[in-house]
Design brief:
about 80 residues, mainly beta
Length: about 80
């Protein structure tokens, strides 16, 4: 016996909990030459920006492709 698919949850207009529309993270705020930090690799410098990810040179830790919205990734 297969379980029924779950119905989509609806927000009541009188609810005090407002659901905000999800906004996907983008790479628009990053530019070549920006200094960034990633918790697992430390400080780095942006060397390339694409729509899907940011390529960062972390010095001795090497280079890495970091997707936008990664936890612990921020611009300084």
């Amino acid at each position: 016996m297969r379980p029924r698919p779950r119905a989509a949850a609806r927000a009541l207009s009188t609810s005090p909990f407002v659901r905000e529309v999800y906004v996907a993270p983008t790479t628009d705020e990053f530019h070549v030459g920006d200094r960034v930090t990633l918790d697992s690799h430390g400080l780095g410098r942006v060397i390339e920006v694409t729509e899907e990810y940011v390529i960062v040179d972390f010095g001795t830790a090497g280079r890495g492709c970091v997707p936008p919205g990664t936890k612990g990734f921020s611009r300084l």
